[in-house]
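Chapter review: from sequence to fold.
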Amino acid sequence: MPALRAGRMAVVPAATSRPGAMPAPKRISVLGATGSVGTSTLDLIGRTPNQFEVVALTAQTNVEALAECALRHRAAFAVIGDASRYQALKERLSGSGIEIAAGAAALIEAAARPADCVMAGISGAAGLGPTMAAVMQGRRVALANKECLVSAGAIFMKAVREAGTELVPVDSEHSGALQAIAGADPDFNRRDLWESIEAGAYPEFEFGVQIFSEEQAEAFSFDVLDATKIVPEELVPITPIGKMVLDRNPDYFFGETEQVAFCAAHIVPGIDFSNDPLLAGRLHSYQDTQLLRLGGPNFHEIPINASVSQVHNNTRDGFHRQSIHRGRVSYEPNSLAGGCPFQAGAAGFTSFPEPIHDDKVRGKPEKFADHYTQATLFWNSQTPIEKAHIIRAYRFELTKVQTTGVRERVVSMLANVATDLAEAVAAELGMEVPEPMPKALDNPQKPEIDASPRLSLFARPGDGSIRTRKIAILIADGVEGEAALALHEGLAELGAVPRFIAARLGQVQTPSGDPIDVEATLETTPSVLYDAVAIPDGEEAAETLAGLGQALEFIKDQYRHCKPILALGAGKTVLDAAEVPTELPAGGADPGVLALSDESSADALQKFVAAIAAHRHFERATDPPEV
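The token string follows.
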């Protein structure tokens, strides 16, 4: 269809420069400006506005977000993919001088306009046409739309080669903290576990059970055999029966970890299987998986899986037999082996003789169809901070969904969970709250409780220690070595894992002449890998760190993630360079940002440890982040 348009025609001149002049700003177009990739890109542009000129911005349906981005970044051209929303965009940008258009043809035109780089962030098949247009114009394309390679890989890459296009892969979730961890250190969690065990900080898991009768189960408003349901602790408290402690790392990772075979069907006398349909499938599938994964029916004889006590049975032969049995028989009763081995009879495992009086049918109980009651219970049990995180998570994921109907259906489901949740998510997506989705069960039973505080993570604040917390100590030449080492040693004595981090490996020099060994670099260990950051005193070091973009981003990320920050003496200079305030957005001192100058090393350590023990300081959280 032809593109709808209004406003002035934008003629973007080619970038030029002359000797001695400031470099011309880079011209950039962002396709999918309201998605995760687009918002991250525009956030970067907003931090360095003099370095970029925004040529074109596009969005599929979110008029309000597109208009806001276009005005903030002074875009020359704004395109809404959904032509039915053209008038709304026109009214929103009236008088701004920004050229606007709508429709699929306009998206392609936006991608083809002269620019130094085109950020291709339109997900799904809708992004193929605009991305291909940018490629055929020979633009530098930052590709987040991987569907171009999946659905039209050969044609797409041929066009890239013929046009001489520079293709830069971009991950559509690169701003996520978890992905940042995986990208910086794919083995982070495994390494963290290994190092904790080696240091003697053994991970512990309390093992508890919930015990109730069949009569109690029948009376619950939910079906206990539904794997999507929980039994609230207010109804049945958890009874601790033991503790599992990981107190040794594997000696041989393949022989122990890779070959271990857990199986839900292996139980001890005294317990039996319920009628849980999910469990029933696993009772079969686990065993079937081990037969293939571990090479045959004798995987139970591999040392890591073998019984500690000797087992006597009539099992023989099969692939990968590990034991050699003596004797001539493998059956009972027999006379050649004195009748041995023989079955243990009643002393062995016997199944619980459950009487069954119902008809055998292939179906699920009616309570399985209650999909929303416990979702409401979970939402009502969260703190305001956790609710805000849930809303932002829905916004993040649904913003990447380009089909309006899908987003509406998700929000219509949330309307059955909680009105405030649906309204908040809908507002974040720039849409009205749709009618609640019809329920599979019209009249579910009234729940026993409306909220369960134990479902909140804040119900488990920890023991107040800082054991295993990873602390970054940023250093550079000129750092006050004595104070830095005292901080490092003090944190280590309390069980934390401090690391000296600098721009490069090697050593940094101190005024006393005693160098400090660098343990990690800003390039390889981003902020998300650490629970807190400290900046020791030292004017020369502070001046150096204040001029390092990586150091400033490290500190900003710590602040955005609400983690503790300590600046000693001249270290406050680095906080100022990163524009990190020591006061909360709502006023008052931020307990997680400590700028100390007159305290002794012991007092500074004590205050820092208290801030770390609190883990996160969510009082400073804002959306979007102010820093």
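Two observations follow directly from the output. The two ends are 43 Å apart (CA to CA). The domain at 470-620 is CATH 3.40.50.880 (Rossmann fold).
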